[in-house]
């Protein structure tokens, strides 16, 4: 994953030639779209716990920062912990830039994921996070639609709750634009790479 | 766009592979029960993901090899650890969402490791009695179609060893 700088420079040049534009996006390992998703106008309640009233969280990063948005649930044993621990590993390798990565976790299982479940869960993966939750499923769906995310919560014949959800994580910039989508399985190396590429773009004023 | 193309190609290749396996296995159904040998099992890289606070579910990952053509049909841990243990598979649904389902039997080819890894198969621990703490071990028993069992310790850690 880690390549010498001159190799990266060569790849940049080649990609620019091949695609015919000046974008650095060819070095991103996640998925980019010709027409990126725009999610900055969406908002959902953020939970703070301890009886504090939720307030609206808007899906865009602070200036010069990145916001990573996950959809999941705390009782998820495989997909969510895998993605979140990859995220944690990637941040640990980013050095000072890690402080500029914000995390929003939108629960797709809001009936069970109350603030007292969400906040301790997220605090094991990040120091900076937003626990986003609404029990208004039509509102949740309207926001998921902006991310092209789907989810379902059903109870099977044995009384077990079955949850499905899109496993992709979304990296959003300060304009509320999804700059890269991180598919499940991209791993800590892929996330670290993409965060570095995106911060290089921000620092070079290319955002 | 390019990546999407590769992914689609990989999917098609996989589907062809699956179709081929499906048709050939039909011819071997009648001979499985007659195997006189006893399988021996090796397990390596076993780990359980440390459970976040408040989590009531856990997952164990490992590689297991049988000396015979066999199938993984069950898993158990002490009820001091979790109320119930199941073998699960994480699947991609037609709408692109991911979900899990309990799986009755995972086929194994003789001397070929079966990987239980994030995003695929895992031993799921339901209703954990206490959180899994880093450095602790969980004793897990796997059961196979051949009638054999194997018991091993999975170390609790943040990531795969």
Q: Distance N terminus to C terminus of chain B?
A: 34 Å
Written as H for each helix and E for each strand, in order along the chain, the element string of chain A is HEEEHEHEHEEEEH
How would the global form of chain A be characterised?
Answer: globular
The helical percent of chain B reads 10-25%
Order of the strands making up the biggest sheet of chain A: 2-1-5-4-3-8-9
| Strand count of chain A | 9
How many H/I helices of chain B?
A: 1
Overall structural class of chain B, as computed from helix and strand content, comes to mainly beta
Indicate the proportion of strand residues of chain A.
Answer: 15-25%
- In DSSP terms (H or I, runs of 4 or more residues), the helix count of chain A works out at 5
Q: In this structure, how is the largest beta sheet of chain A organized? A: 7 strands, mixed
What is the overall pLDDT average of chain B?
Answer: 82
Series of secondary-structure elements of chain B, N-terminal to C-terminal: HEEEEEEEEEE
Most strands sheet of chain B? 10 strands, mixed
**Shape type of chain B:** globular
**Range of helix content of chain A:** 25-40%
- Greatest chain-chain contact: A-B, 31 and 28 residues
Mean of residue pLDDT values of chain A: 88
Which assembly state applies to the chains in this document? heterodimer
- Taken as a percent bin, the fraction of beta residues of chain B is over 45%
The termini of chain A sit apart by 23 Å
């Amino acid at each position: 994953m880690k390549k010498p700088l001159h190799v990266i420079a060569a790849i940049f040049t080649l990609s620019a030639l091949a695609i015919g534009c000046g974008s650095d996006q060819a070095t991103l390992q996640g998925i980019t779209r010709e027409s990126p998703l725009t999610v900055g106008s969406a908002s959902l309640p953020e939970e703070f716990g301890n009886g504090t009233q939720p307030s609206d969280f808007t899906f865009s990063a602070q200036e010069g920062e990145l916001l990573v948005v996950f959809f999941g649930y705390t009782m998820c044993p495989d997909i969510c912990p895998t993605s979140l621990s990859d995220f944690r590993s990637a941040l640990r390798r980013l050095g000072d830039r890690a402080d500029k990565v914000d995390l929003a976790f939108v629960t797709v299982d809001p009936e069970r994921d109350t603030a007292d479940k969400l906040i301790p869960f997220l605090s094991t993966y990040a120091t900076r996070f937003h626990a986003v939750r609404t029990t208004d499923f039509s509102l949740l769906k309207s926001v998921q639609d902006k991310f092209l995310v789907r989810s379902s919560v059903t109870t099977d014949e044995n009384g077990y709750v079955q949850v499905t959800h899109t496993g992709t994580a979304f990296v959003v910039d300060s304009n509320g634009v999804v700059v890269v989508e991180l598919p499940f399985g991209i791993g800590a190396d892929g996330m670290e790479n993409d965060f570095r590429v995106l911060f290089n773009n921000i620092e070079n004023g290319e955002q | 766009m390019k990546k999407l193309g590769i992914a689609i190609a990989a999917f098609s290749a996989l589907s062809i592979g699956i179709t081929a396996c499906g048709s050939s296995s039909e011819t071997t159904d009648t001979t499985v029960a007659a195997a006189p040998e006893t399988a021996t099992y090796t397990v390596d890289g076993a780990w359980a993901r440390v459970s976040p606070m408040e989590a009531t579910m856990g997952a164990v990952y490992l590689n297991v090899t049988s000396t015979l053509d066999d199938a993984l049909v069950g898993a158990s841990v002490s009820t001091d650890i979790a109320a119930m243990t199941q073998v699960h598979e994480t699947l991609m649904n037609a709408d692109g969402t991911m979900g899990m389902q309990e799986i009755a039997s995972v086929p194994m080819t003789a001397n070929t490791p079966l990987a239980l890894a994030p995003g695929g198969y895992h031993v799921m621990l339901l209703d954990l009695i206490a959180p899994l703490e880093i450095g602790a071990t969980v004793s897990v028993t796997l059961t196979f179609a051949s009638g054999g069992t194997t018991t091993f310790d999975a170390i609790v850690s943040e990531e795969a060893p």
